[in-house]
Amino acid sequence: MRTTIADLAIAEVKPAIELYRGKRRQKVSPQFMHALLQSRLVQIVAAWASGRGRAGVEWRFYFLEDGVAKSSSLVPDVAYVSFDRLPYEAQIEAEQPLIAPDIAIEVLSPDDRPGHVREKIDLYRAYGTPCVVVVDPKRKAIDVYDAGAEDPRTAEFPASIAILDDLTIDLAALFAPLEPPRPR
């Protein structure tokens, strides 16, 4: 019997609980730099996505398989889905998508475990995400995992990197230091 979203019984808490092939794992509580990068990234992706798809933060995706123990549900920090895959008219389906995002962006937090991040990348790719982006604030770098590629493409501050189609992220702008307050 096919698993349903209700069968997963995922509590909606903050930070979100994700399901990795039946194993529950709560996301790491974000800190300021994570929040700053996440907000900058969603602005970049949303501006690029205008007219071609949906972009959002902390948007839950469901990967349902036969049996709850095999199903997964991930909440990328920033996600994009094209209107080609999830049409504009599919408003209800967009609330709880049963497809993988076209772009899944994860911003690393200091407490993220490398093994968990790798598992998440592998899950996105297994369920059909063509482009997984991992942003590392400590290294000021971005790793892009393209569908079918063994190794990621990497860019470090202050370079730019093409993500998908004509979406490019300028790391100098992304990692720009905060401006100090101006005297009044």
What does this structure look like?
With 184 residues, the chain is an alpha+beta fold. The chain has one domain (5-69, 76-174): tt1808, chain A, CATH 3.90.1570. It contains five helices and twelve strands. It has helices at 5-8, 32-49, 91-95, 114-126, 171-174; strands spanning 17-20, 23-26, 53-57, 61-63, 72-74, 78-82, 103-107, 131-136, 141-146, 153-156, 160-164, 167-170. The longest helix has 18 residues, at 32-49. The mean pLDDT is 91.
Tally of helical segments:
5
Named at the architecture level, the CATH assignment is Alpha-Beta Complex
CATH topology, which one? tt1808, chain A
Computed structural class: alpha+beta
- Strand arrangement within the widest β-sheet reads 3-6-7-8-9-10
Task: Write out the CATH superfamily name.
Answer: tt1808, chain A
The fraction of residues assigned to DSSP E strands is: 25-35%
Shape: globular
Gyration radius, in Å: 17 Å
Q: Segments where pLDDT lies below 50 for 5+ residues?
A: none
The first-to-last residue Cα distance is 65 Å
Largest sheet: 6 strands, mixed
Count of extended strands: 12
> How many domains is the backbone divided into?
1
Q: Report the average pLDDT across residues.
A: 91
Query: Which CATH C-level class is it?
Result: Alpha Beta
Helix content: 10-25%
Order of helices and strands: HEEHEEEEHEHEEEEEH
List the helices and strands and how they pair.
Blueprint: H1 5-8, E1 17-20, E2 23-26, H2 32-49, E3 53-57, E4 61-63, E5 72-74, E6 78-82, H3 91-95, E7 103-107, H4 114-126, E8 131-136, E9 141-146, E10 153-156, E11 160-164, E12 167-170, H5 171-174
Parallel strand pairs: 7-8
Antiparallel strand pairs: 1-2, 3-6, 4-5, 6-7, 8-9, 9-10, 11-12
